[in-house]
Amino acid sequence: MLRAIAYRLQEQEFGGLSEAQCRRLRQLSSALKANPNAAVSTRPLIKPGTRLLRQWKDQVHVVEVAPEGYQYKGARYESLSEIARLITGTRWSGPLFFGLKSKPLTDSKEAQ
Fold it and tell me: Are 70 and 64 in contact (CB under 8 A)?
């Protein structure tokens, strides 16, 4: 009961889950009900054939989403982060680099 009350207080103070987060939780719930042993993928849900474009240092980079992984310059990669690292030379979140995920907002109360 204490956890439920604590969650509700946090929800009132900071807001609840977004519609996208609720939708993802419903998808995960359905998948696990159908197969309790199913592996949960953290890979962004993008349809195969989708092309991701990113301009970096005056060059446009094109990544195609494949059924299993990603295609970039004729090679197959497991994650967007691998490709982002190859392009930039530094560690990046692939979904963040390609605009599939936004940076978390800082809490204005913490900044005060």
Answer: yes
Distance of CA 33 to the CA centre of its chain: 23
What local confidence, expressed as pLDDT, does residue 73 receive? 96
Distance between CA 96 and CA 23 in Å, rounded? 20
* pLDDT number for residue 111: 46
Q: What is the pTM of this model?
A: 0.57
Q: Residue 92: which residues within 8 A CB-CB, separation 6 or more?
A: 81, 84, 85
Taking Cα atoms as reference points, which of 47, 26, 43, 34 lies closest to residue 77? Answer: 43
Contact assessment for residue 98 and residue 84, using Cβ atoms and an 8 Å cutoff = yes
Residue 112 has pLDDT above 70, yes or no: no
